[in-house]
Each structure stands twice: as C-alpha cells, then as structure tokens.
Amino acid sequence: MTFAARLLVAVSLLPLAVPLAAQDVEEAEESPPAAEIVVTGRGLDPALSTGIYATTTLERETIVAAPSGRIEDVLRNVAGFQQFRRSDSRSSNPSAQGVTLRALGGNATSRALVLLDGVPVADPFFGYIPLSAIPPETLGTIRVTRGGGSGPFGAGALAGTIELESAEPGQAGGFLGSAAINDRADTEASGVLTRRLGSGFAVASGRWDRGQGFFTTPADQRVPATARAAFDSWNAALRTVAPLAPDIEVQARIAAFRDTRTLRFKGAVSASEGQEASIRFVGRGAWQFDALAYVQARDFSNVVISATRFTPTLDQRATPSTGVGGKFELRPPLLEGHDIRIGADYRRAEGETREEALNAVTGRVTERRRAGGTTDNLGLFVEDDWQIGPLTINGGLRADRSSVTGGFYRAVSATGVPVNTILPADRSDWSASWRAGALFYATRRLSLRGAAYTGLRLPTLNELYRPFVVFPVTTEANADLRNERLKGYEVGLDWQPVSAVVIAVTAFDNRVENAIANVTIGPNLRRRANLPAIDARGVEASVAARVGRVSLDGALAWTDAEARGRGLSADLDGKRPAQTPKLAATATLGWEPAAGWRFAGTLRHVAAQFEDDRGTDRLPAATTLDAFLAMPLAEKFSVVVRGENLTGERIVTRNQAGSIDLGTPRTGWIGLRYGF
Questions:
Q1: Which CATH number do you get for residue 191?
Q2: Domain range for residue 259?
Q3: What is the rounded average pLDDT of the residues 235-249?
Q4: What is the pLDDT of residue 200?
C-alpha cells in the first residue's frame, strides 16, 4: 500500500477517537447544557436544481427488497438504466460491468458516473463498476439523474449520475444480519453493525457470497471442459462519522473487497480486488462546504481458455491500478434567492496490465505484454439556482483540463526479443461544458421542466492501450482515442393527479460525439474507435402509486438510438449501437399486510438487442418475473423467500457468431434476517 493510502487509512480512524475522547473528559465546573449535535453522514442537501433534471430516487425499503439481493437488480427499477451485458455480478466478467443510461451504447466502460458517498467507484484502469462490492443493505438512498451536466466529478457524468448514499443510524438500526441459501446450494451472508459513539457513529459491514453457480453455456454447446459460473466474493467496510463543530462533521471510510468467478470453461478464472479509503468534511453553516479526498488501489487478473483445445491461451496475471482524487465545493450565501455552488475536483488514474500469451498445446509462454499509462482530469465549476416564486432557473459552467500521459504497449517474445512497441505522445487539452434548465410549478400537483446540457468522458486506460480477445473475435486498443462529448436536451413533467399517485414523463434527445465503440474492421477483428456520433432520442416514464398497504412502482424507457459511422465505417451508419434495447420496462407490485410483512413481485421486459456493431448477432427479447417475501417470526427474526426468473425465461447475454452465454435461470432463495 502506498504512503498516501496508509495516511488516509490512519486519518479515517480519527473520527472513532473524537467522540470517545470527549466522553472521558471531566468538566472542571458546571456549564449550561449544550445544544444537541446531530450528524447525518450525508453530503450537503441536494441542490434546488435536482428537480429540473430527470431524477429518480430509490428509498431503503426498495433497496433491501431486491429478489437477487444485488445492487444491479435494484438499479434496474430505474427507467433507462442498463448494464453493458444482461449478466449479473455473479456470472459476468467483472471487467464487463459497465453501466449507462438512456441506451447510449458503447463498450464495457461506464458512461454513467457512479458515486458512493461522493466518491467515484469506477475501476481506475477499466472503468467498470465493482457491483459485487456494493452491498444494498448498507445503503439508505439512491438518486439517479439521467442526462449529462456539470458539477463535482462531472467529467464522468456523460449519460448521468448514480449517487449511492450510506444508511443513517436511524435507517439501518443497531444490527442487521442475514443468511440465505438457494436451490443450487449457493449461499450469502451479510451483517451491518451500527453504533453510536458520543455525538457520532460508526458502521461496520461485511458480506460473503459463494456458490457453484449455474451453467451459462446452453446444453447443446457444452463440452467436458464446460464449467458452471462459480463465484466467491467478499467485502468489508468501516465507516465513521463525528462532529468537529456544531455545524461541521467529518466522515471517513475504509473498505476492501475480493471477487473471483469462473467463466464458461474450467480454469477460466477471473479475480478482482480492491482497497480504498476516503475522508470528507461537510460544513452545514451559513457558508456550506463539502471537502473530499480519496485513494483507491485495484487489481484484476484473468485466465483465458481456448474454445477449441480448452487449455489456457492467455494469463492476464495482474492489472494493478490506482485512483486518487478529491473535490471541494463551496456554497456561499451571496444573493437572496440564489443557491450558488463553486468548486473544483480532480481525479488521476494510473495502471498497467501484465499478461503472458501461452501456447495452447505446450502451455509455454509465447509472448509477454505490458500496457498502461496515466490519465488526469482537473475540473473547475460554478453553478447557480435562482428561485423566483414558482420558477427555479439553473445554470452551470465547467472547465476540464484532461491529460493522457506515459502511455505504452510493449510485447516481447519468451526470450525477451521485442515484438511490438507503441509509445504514443503525451497530450492534454481544455474542454468547456455547461448545463441550463428551468422548473415551473404550474399548479400544486403539476410541475414542468426543461433542460439542455453538454458533458465529457475521458477514454479509460483499458480502451487506450489494452487489446483483448473474446473468442473468436480480437479487439485492438487505440491510443489515439479522443474524449467523448455529449450534447442533449430534454423536457418533462411531474404530475400528481391524486395524493396517492405520482407520474413522471421525460422526452429527451442526446448525442454522443466521438463515441468510443468496438468497430469491426475485418473477419473476427475489431478496433476501438471514435464514431462520429451516437444519437439517442426517446421517452422515459415512471409511476408510483400507494393505496393503503398496496403499492405499484413502474418504469419504462423507449429509445431510438442510431450510430453515425460515415467516414469511419459505412456499415455502421444508421445501425442501432451494440447492446442497446429499444424498450425496457419494469413494474413492481408490493403488499405489506401487517408490520414486518412485505411481498413484492417484479415483472421486467427487455427488448431484443445486438451483440455487435453491425447488427448480425441478435440477443432475443426477455421477460422475467421475480419475487420477494419477508415474514416476521419471533423477536427481530424474519424469514425471507426470494425468487429470480420464476418463469424460467431463456436470457441470452452473449451471442458471438452463435457461441451463446445465458443469464440467471429460475432460482429460489430462502433465508433468515435479523434486525433491530
């Protein structure tokens, strides 16, 4: 661990000592009782402009009732949310866990910015989201804002922002523990312990998931070397919050995780792991501020097995990477009726891949490859919300200085003879982004909104420097990739026809220029390249209804997306981008007949989509039914029964020229939950 990492870990433990030390100090003389200090563990309150943009908020009761018990299942309740593939975080390659919004397509890198308590969680090298390291039971709120924009860490918010906030003591209770087993004998166990410490609190959490998994390979394509998608993952975290003054609190977090999976064949094992630490100071006085610093250390390894000889052909033995950064946001009370935000943020990602190509017959090393580099982004932003009676106007500007330095790709033979060396020139530039919008409360039950914006995403180190193979297709890297730029606008309304029903509808038109995609350039050969653009226009809708103890939550996203490939590949022009369905819809019917009881059934539909950029390898539409049931027993115990894909739908997650992978089959879970 680097010195910076050790320093942040040490600092993150300081809040534990603050309230404890305060309890041990004896007062020399009597003093009037002090005002109660309340710490929340949250960042600053959402800005007024939150309601201007298409935003969905998920509360804790929804988060902890996912039929699969996994965070990606929770997020699928949001209109427009999409993973790169339909696989979940137990059966996919971790490096393919990119998330996006609004069917903006692309590759396995995330086009949506994901934050956990203000910290970007994307892998510094690949840009994927370590979904298995985010236990839903530790979260209190999820806020998803679709569409680009400026603000803290806005350089990654091309398709939107997903903000995950940890649960407060009042939400999580003193202890929440659970254990479950499914019909394949896969198991999961988790615990969240929350303790008040003086005027602050500490939360320790851990989770362990393991199992033999299911066959992702269809029965008619299995061979003796075919393996189940076995998984074994754990994560642990300690988070502390303490007051420094009546209106200032310090928040600190340290965490670690490891996740291993088997993909398709025996010996095809991938592993991802990470350690991270962050410290955050939040001031809620007249001059509000939010100051954050963090460090992340990640690694990834992967063994590729030949689909013909079923022996190792590549040992990607290590991909160490580091992400460091921070932000500072100030909200000065300068003008009546204005909510002004001024600040800066910074993120640096560096890493390299270390891999050996192997002879499929002898198993000997034929080539040793190293590739990597560094990317930096410094952002400066200013934003204002101006409230004029029923009208709120938002405007924001952002300037980003991004740089790509130290890039390299080196391949040598087994004896050390150079085979290929690429040393691209360093580069840097400035980019300007902006967003503007308005929210008008037409009546007490109807609000109208409209917005326009631009956004920015840097290519990842993986996209720039690392080629890869998914048999039988080889995809080349491209060190000359340019930043992706988003231009878009949207209009929408939020309507509450009666007190128990809320309806939201948004129409949008987004365009990603220089969109990075895997472009076919020959038989079984692709290359990462900047498309002229990806256009996505569509409608998102959601409904939330509550009638007594019955609830209905639904979301729908219809998107017409097209790639613009003229000048790069005429075969792409007008084609639908890879991995982008035209329609995705979900509906959850819930019932809470008595205290502690909860039943929820979720119906989901995802339309057909294509594996490839030319639209030749089709992934059929899939409709699934999931269920969740919690029944109280004695004291604080409950029985929890969950069902995934109860209809046994055949979910095709990958189709590479007829070589198919499948998603989660019908699966039943039963377990115990204890909480107080």
A1: 2.40.170
A2: 3-23+36-452+460-473+622-675
A3: 96
A4: 94
